[in-house]
Input
Amino acid sequence: QVQLVESGGGLVQPGGSLRLSCATSGFAFSDRFMRWYRQAPGRERELVANIGTLTVSLYYSDSVKGRFTISRDNAKNTVYLQMNDVKLEDTGVYYCNVKLGDDNYWGQGTQVTVSS
Output
């Protein structure tokens, strides 16, 4: 079955960096767009970044553009989110996502807390 497992979250100070990973299985990873979402406390889940196949079709939300980088390793069926110069407002649970047909699949999420 489809599995998405995020890791790499934690506590980081403003201006610091984190690298999130999402290991996947159960579908043809290299053929699919992959997305990172986040959900801050009391807010709706929002799209942070997506990456198409062969690393083209990159998208970043305005709030992370220039600071975050999404990438993928098709040999490892893994998508990454490099977070640099993090801000307090980057705090939240980060989820990776894949859409297969009409179905959306999500991982369990990884908590990122930005605090001094």
User: Anything to note?
Assistant: The longest strand covers residues 92-100. The chain has a mean pLDDT of 96. The chain is about 0% helix and 50% strand.
